[in-house]
Specification:
Helix content is 10%, strand content 41%. It is mainly β. It has one domain. The strands form 9 sheets. Strands 17, 18, 21, 22, 23, 27 and 28 form a 7-stranded mixed sheet that branches. It is globular.
């Protein structure tokens, strides 16, 4: 598994490119330390677990076939299981014993005996080709149902107890979105709020904000049948809409960042014909503005003022809230799109060999948008009136509002919070941490008020995104535990689920698994209803 002479090869091979085996029947973990008795439920995580089929390999780490895994907590014990998502993509690849369905970083040609041009005409008959249903990024909740998701129009319903793959669902049957985020929000009424991009609908490209309400227990229909479009926003450039991975939400507003990381629709439509992957159709325009759309949930319309920042790339929003007539939103931002490029398999080993990262450093930035922008405000005036931030919003001569952020800290990604504080003023962020390496080796708790950072790390261990689970009788924001699945490039260390006290960030237990655990992306904790 590991070569002492070549630890980089070990990391790439063991952590990233090694194919995993599923563990379909639950196995009991070996617990060191203890599991709190109040922690009852199931953590489900999603991520790429198979990076080659037959003699073919995927070009990009994010292309790997989805492997779901779960950790079930019951009376101080932990049980583990994993299953590959039986998507149409997975089944087609397994039947052919090769990669026959394209992913964003890997273009596949199903019939090697046919010339590329013969198949290309099928793709060219559609503005957007049919995407994969390899839903490997996250788990989404609609009503009482759970779905594996990626960023296409397809999601796959799963059984959260057995991890069995159930129905294939096409967003297009309910809301006309070709692409949708894997990071929805949930409000206090049980609604799921999400965003997607509608490409070429009636000749227009627009961003769609939609709501899926919870369904009553006696209603057998899919919650998606009740989906409602809350708002649509025309793209600044109809043939090159913005790529986005998440968005922010407060009690009364949605924050959508239309960034200059663009999906070129014409290039997308002709990618198969040209023999290139879809990822090459995403272009960063460093000279363009980043537009902030603030949508009022009450009126279902964006506020009238035009807010913008300098060019940036954002994948993950942290949180957002309202304060004294302002919307405050926190994000992890990059100066370019080098992060996506770094995860091409050919680039991973090269980047890990270096002692300085070739990617843009993730930066925790706080933007503040004033909701009451006086029309008589002078050009050059800072409209942010909060004394607790250095973020600014300055009126320009053309009437737009130029926003500059407050830099909170650097080097964190995959941020999570106590979701009970989503949309509210909050204090703590739990995240992965990077230094010179582009891949996290630490997880941290960051205190926004004191700027104190608590750290967990272990030699040759690669932690996944930390997830906060609150104590059922929590009195404070950080009353709870942090869960993170850990992969090690040390052959003497079994993979394990880490449990940290969220308040002190001290390890309280780990559940070692005698199975092939993969480095995952995102997930959800489902508490027992009892």
């Amino acid at each position: 598994m590991e070569s002492a002479d070549n630890p980089v090869e070990s990391v790439v091979g063991v952590v990233f490119s090694k194919n995993r085996q599923e563990c379909p029947e639950p196995i009991k973990a070996e617990v060191k330390g203890h599991i709190p008795n109040w922690l009852q439920g199931t953590l489900i995580r999603n991520g790429p677990g198979l990076h080659s089929v037959g003699e073919m390999s995927y070009n990009h780490w994010f292309d790997g076939l989805s492997l779901l895994h779960s950790f079930t907590f019951k009376n101080g014990e932990v049980y583990y299981r994993s299953k590959f998502l039986r998507s149409d993509t997975y089944n087609s690849n397994m039947e052919a014993k090769r990669i026959v369905v394209s992913e964003f970083g890997t273009m596949a040609y199903p019939d090697p005996c046919k010339n590329i041009f013969s198949k290309a005409f099928t793709y060219l008959s559609h503005v957007v080709p049919e995407f994969t249903d390899n839903c490997l990024i996250n788990i989404i909740k609609f009503g009482d149902d759970y779905y594996a998701s990626s960023e296409t129009n397809f999601i796959r319903k799963i059984d959260p107890q057995t991890l069995d793959t159930l129905d294939k669902v096409d967003y297009m049957k309910y809301v006309t979105v070709n692409l949708a985020t894997s990071h929805p929000h949930y409000d206090n009424a049980g609604n799921t709020i999400n965003m997607g991009t509608s490409i070429g609908d009636k000749g227009k490209t627009k961003y769609m904000l939609f709501k899926v309400p919870p369904v009553a227990a006696d209603n057998k229909k899919s919650p998606l049948k009740n989906a409602e479009v809350l708002c649509s926003i025309p793209a600044h450039h109809l043939l090159s809409p913005s790529y986005y991975h998440s968005f922010g939400m407060t009690e009364n507003y949605i924050i959508f960042i239309e960034q200059p990381l663009k999906l070129d629709i014409l290039k997308l439509a002709t990618a198969y014909f040209r023999g290139v992957n879809w990822g090459s159709c995403i272009i960063f325009n460093k000279d363009e503005k980043t537009w902030f759309h603030i949508i009022d949930k009450r009126t279902k319309k964006p506020v009238a003022e035009k807010f913008y920042a300098d060019a940036l790339v954002v994948y993950h929003h942290i949180n957002a809230y309202e304060e004294d007539g302002h919307v405050v939103f926190d994000i992890i931002a990059y100066k370019d799109n080098s992060l996506y490029e770094m995860f091409y398999m050919a680039n991973l080993e090269k980047d890990l060999c270096q002692e300085t990262t070739t990617t843009s450093i993730p930066t925790f930035k706080r933007f503040v948008v004033p909701l009451q922008c006086a029309k008589k405000a002078e050009v050059g005036e800072n409209l942010v009136k909060l004394p607790t931030t250095t973020a600014t919003a300055v009126k320009t001569k053309d009437g737009e509002i130029h926003c500059q952020p407050e830099i909170i800290c650097e080097g964190i990604e995959l941020p999570r919070i106590n979701y009970a504080y989503n949309g509210k003023k909050y204090r703590y962020v739990y995240a992965s941490h990077v230094e010179w390496r582009p891949i996290p080796t630490k997880i941290v708790k960051f205190d926004i008020v004191t700027k104190e950072m608590l750290v967990w790390t272990d030699n040759m261990c690669w932690p996944a995104e930390p997830l906060f689970v609150p104590h059922p009788d929590a009195k404070e924001e950080d009353d709870g535990v942090i869960l993170s699945s850990i992969v090690s490039s040390n052959p003497k260390t079994s993979p394990f689920l880490l449990l940290l006290d969220a308040k002190t960030f001290k390890e309280i237990g780990r559940a070692s698994i005698s199975a092939s655990i993969h480095l995952d992306l995102h997930g959800i904790f489902i508490p027992d209803k009892n």
